[in-house]
Amino acid sequence: TGVTACRALIEAAAAEGADAIVVHHGYFWKGEDPRIVGMKRHRLALLLENDISLLAYHLPLDAHVEVGNNVQLATLLGVVVEGWFGGPPVDIAVHGALEIGMSVDELTKRIELLTGRAPLVIRGGGFEVTRVGICTGAAQSYLERAAALGLDAFITGEVSEQTVHTARELGINFFSAGHHATECYGIRALGHHLANYFGVQHLFIDIPNPV
Asked: Which of 21, 19, 29 is nearest to 54 (CA)?
């Protein structure tokens, strides 16, 4: 398994003798050029040359209640999930309470220890954090919805210029912890589940990405 079906992941999987790759970010996105040319052609050719099947689960993996990206990240950070938000059309973000409340600095350190990278923090809210919203990847547009729930902090992967002003004006702490970094946990959990259920071997391959 891996986060994104990039060339480096395919090459690494082929070197391991993989029969299939399961990813969060696959191909043929809505609105993209459907032609098999350029980079897409090279990636697909590499899969075919090595007899590797590719399976991709995007929003279904974000929203899954057991192995989903958001539930997995919440669990690892010590957040007890109480509900979902973010829609329409589908609520994929989670919100809940930390098992033990902590300061913004303490939550920052916890995120860094988990992901291996320091998050970008916008201190828009109070010093103490108890209630947290989480949506991995690029969900900075959910910040207003998180603030409307009265959350102390919102954690996602990416950040936009306007995010800074939104956090400050709505009084909520914002954490940008990396798109790739926040989305390693769901696909890895799915891989472990498939290995246990079908009796197959599973290896998570991390292709580092600073975004």
From this structure: 21
Q: Cβ(4)–Cβ(27) under 8 Å?
A: no
pTM comes to 0.96
Helical ranges in 27-178 per DSSP H: 38-49, 59-63, 69-77, 104-115, 143-148, 161-170
Q: CA dist 152 to 34, 116, 137, Å?
A: 42, 23, 20
Task: Look at residue 111 in the predicted model and tell me its pLDDT.
Answer: 99
Q: Token digits for 105?
A: 């600095």
pLDDT over 70 percentage in the chain: 100
Class of domain 2-56: alpha beta
Query: For residue range 108-128, what is the model confidence (pLDDT) as tens digits?
Result: 999 999 999 999 999 999 999
CATH topology assigned to domain 62-182: 3.40.1390
Residue 174: CB atoms within 10 A of its CB come to 27
Residue carrying structure tokens 């988990």: 114
Measured over the CA atoms of residue 123, residue 137, residue 187 and residue 204, the dihedral's sign is negative
Over the range 56-95, which residues count as b (16 or more CB within 10 Å of their CB) and which as e?
Answer: bbeeebbbbeebbbbbbbbbebebebeebbbeeeeebbbb
Confidence of residue 161 (pLDDT cuts 50, 70, 90): very high
What does the domain layout of the chain look like in residue ranges?
Answer: 2-56, 62-182
